[in-house]
Amino acid sequence: MITVTLKDGTKKEYEEGITIQNIAKSISQGLGKSAICAKVNGEITDLTNTVDEDINLEILTFDTEYNEKEPEDAFPARRVFWHTTAHILAQAVKRLYPDVKLTIGPPIDKGFYYDFEFQNPFSADDLAKVEKEMQKIVKENLSLKRFVLPRNEAIELMKKRGESYKIELIDSLPEDEELSFYEQGEFIDLCVGKHLPSTGMVKSLKLLSVAGAYWRADQSNTMLTRIYGISYPKKELLDAYLNRLEEAKKRDHRKLGKELELFDIYEEGPGFPFFLPKGMVIRNQLEDFWRIEHEKAGYLEIRTPIILNEELWKRSGHYDHYKDNMYSTIIDEEIYRVKPMNCPGALLVYKSKLHSYRDLPKRVGELGLVHRHELSGALHGLMRVRCFTQDDAHIFMMPEHIKDEIKGVFELIDKFYSIFGFTYKIELSTRPENSMGSDEDWEMATNSLKEALFDMGRDYKINEGDGAFYGPKIDFHLEDSIGRTWQCGTIQLDFQMPERFDLTYIGSDNEKHRPIMIHRVIYGSVERFIGILTEHFAAAFPLWLSPVQIKILPVSHSSYEYSKKISEEFIKSGFRTQIDIRNEKIGFKIREAQLSKIPYMLIIGDKEVEQNTITVRSLRGGDLGTYSLYDFIQKITKENTNKDLTN
RNA sequence: GCUUAUGUGGCUCAGUGGUAGAGCACUUCCUUGGUAAGGAAGAGGUCGGGGGUUCAAUUCCCCUCAUAAGCUCCA
To answer: Nearest nucleotide by C1' from A434 CA?
Structure first.
């Protein structure tokens, strides 16, 4: 007999050799039925595994949640569920197109994909056919069996099946790695697992899209066909998911930006957004706020030119490392480059005079317009454009300033992001392949960032090889409406540029020393930040950002005069106010104001004229009742200046 | 840039090998109406661009541009 200790501490005895599935069934009918996999002594395990010794056991269902650091481990059972669905997908594809080659098919954050090499093009219309075949496989309720082969037999098996990519995978695995396979019906796949005991558990599935993906994520390799899908143990869950996806799409900043006339991108300028009057209000508010907060934090502001001589870009290293992304022009027969970054300009400013150690750290900000030639396929609304404004700043300092300055930037980031209720993820990006400087410099810089993160007790993920060419960086990532993350803020530590530009300061020893530099942005790109904001608020911006804050809606002709008077009062008090004197019914005017996401509507009819009051309707709260003009101005002035989001 | 889609009046979309339709928006008129669409009439498009097939192309084919999802790359 063996003893099984459950998560709640209870112990049970079983015969040796019992499967975990059977244990699950014996524990509770309901739990046993929805069991997907298990944690045996903390390790994810297939339910088909047998138990021969005493264990700690936790049965995992689709909804078992872990709050682990890596989001991909939050729902371990889902990943097992989706992984098996990926195998079902591969099996269906193999049945319909036998000469297709398998590559890899993992679960992802939401669902799964499988990459295939098709001999003939696979079109989106074929998805329905594959989906049908998958449903057949589910109905067949094939059981999944795991088996292990020695290396030579594994290669032999894959050779026989013509799976050349799998052989490549086996070859790349370390010698001592166990080669496990999962088998369901006629389908066999090289796979570490884990998997469901049978295909019948995948009650409801949907293939979502077809896309290309490079083999091993390398642009020089074959482009494979990637099929994305999602699956659930219940149809209602799938429907709910698809519903949520639809809802999220309604918050797409590209759609809202156009509908609400905030910004637009035309065919004549791919990646070059136009800001419309209402979008400009938001921009200006963000920039005003930025200036006020940065002045408080001891920053100076400069503005440097957009076009500068190519010689400068050669000196900074941008020419060598970033040439393909830079636009250029010719002035008086010399090549000039459009700036992709603001730092060289800031360096020239620093160099224009001598600096004493007493003046450091020196924080110099710039709302700098940069242009970068991004690949056409990478463009994405305001999130990824070819011309954008970075809320940049460069901090020139001595080594002993590093920690405090990083901390200071963190404080600013926290202040800015918390106002909008953003939660962010931190990544530390390390040295990329194509970079400049010595290993020692990079190590020192990377360690400084790590230490700062450690001191502040921040969790972060390491993003290998994703740093800037001149230094490592801490990135702050924000989510869009459908959960894609975009890098916004960043803090980069740079030992290279000061060297390249021979920056100096005079130390207390009266000698010249080399300063260290931080490049940092808070919004990241004002454009991208507005994109994120738009999706976050579904364009119902907080009062201080709203393009139109108050819309006055006269009920009829008889209240026009009074409405105009009220309107002037609000404008005088500094509120962005509009009046709707169209010959329309009040219901219609309310509907339009509501759809334009205007925070406050003032309904003005005979009653208000008579009593010298206003009736207020808020976007979210509906009818707020009657106010005196004075009281209401007091109320919203407070809301406006506190940047209060609670309303 | 690559893979797969898409591209019809300002917007959202229908449609067809014989030179186009709806709703909203727009203009004019009627309606003066109290918390999410009052009514009527009218104007507006050489169907992304170029080429080809055809007696005839918005519809079929090729090229190109833009957009979307994903890959690669990045703020």
So the answer is: B73
User: Among residues of chain A, what percentage have pLDDT more than 90?
Assistant: 80
Distance of A241 CA from B23 C1′ (whole Å) = 30
Structure tokens at A403: 């920690």
pLDDT band at residue A68 under the 50/70/90 scheme: low
**Structure confidence at residue A176 (pLDDT):** 84
A2-61 placed in CATH 3.30.565.10: no
pLDDT of residue A69: 61
CA distance A437 to A435: 7
pLDDT tens-place string over residues A75-92: 899 999 999 999 999 999
Q: CA A14 – C1' B29 distance (Å)?
A: 88
Of A194-198, A282-286, A434-438, which gets the smallest average pLDDT? A434-438
**CB-strand contact A620/B, under 7 Å:** no
Phi, psi (rounded to 5 degrees) for A493: -105, 130
Q: Is the CB of A404 under 7 A from strand B?
A: no
A541 vs A381, A573, A646, CA distance in Å?
Answer: 19, 20, 12
**Answer CATH for A543-642 from 3.40.190.10, 3.30.300.30, 3.20.20.140, 3.40.50.800:** 3.40.50.800
> What mean pLDDT is reported for chain A?
92
What is the pLDDT at residue A644? Answer: 45
Check if residue A574 sits with its Cβ under 7 angstroms from strand B: no
Distance A116 CA to B56 C1' (A): 44
A321 part of the active site: no
CA/C1' separation A149–B73 (Å): 39
What is the bridge-based pairing of β-strands A111-117 and A179-184? unpaired
Fold of A76-248: Threonyl-tRNA Synthetase; Chain A, domain 2 (3.30.980)
Strand B contact at CB of residue A587, distance < 7 A: yes
With beta carbons less than 8 A apart as the criterion, state whether A508 and A276 touch.
no
pLDDT of A399 > 50? The answer is yes
**Which one from A39, A253, A372, A617 is the annotated catalytic residue?**
A372
Using an 8 Å Cβ cutoff, are A21 and A15 in contact? no
Listed by start position, the domains of chain A span 2-61, 76-248, 269-304+340-537, 543-642
ipTM of the complex: 0.94
